[in-house]
Design a protein that fits this description.
alpha+beta; Arc Repressor Mutant, subunit A; 3 helices; 6 strands
């Protein structure tokens, strides 16, 4: 698929949802099963509400986790979002 553009707006695809916060594991439940979310992945998915562009999600994460790691945050966020979109867990609106 095409790479994500900064202005792309993402949300969870129909049939996909996060498990309860505070569970033993963070999971993204998808029609085919579940994807285990590690590190800040749950936070990233929570920001995909259909209200923010990819650029805004990256900026929010940089504010939360520190601009000293800005390039790494951007690269890892874009990679995760692209993988989830390619798996059908996220959709562009």
């Amino acid at each position: 698929m095409n790479s994500l553009q900064p202005e792309t707006i993402l949300r969870l695809a129909p049939g996909c949802r996060l498990n309860e916060s505070g569970s033993a594991e963070d999971l993204l439940l998808i029609p085919e099963g579940a994807l285990r979310l590690k590190g800040p992945a749950r936070t990233i998915v929570e920001l995909c509400t259909g209200d923010r562009a990819v650029r805004e999600i990256v900026e929010e994460l940089q504010r939360r986790f520190g601009v000293e790691n800005a390039e790494r945050i951007e690269a890892e966020t874009l990679a995760l979002l692209a993988r989830l979109r390619d798996r059908g867990a996220l959709e562009s609106i």
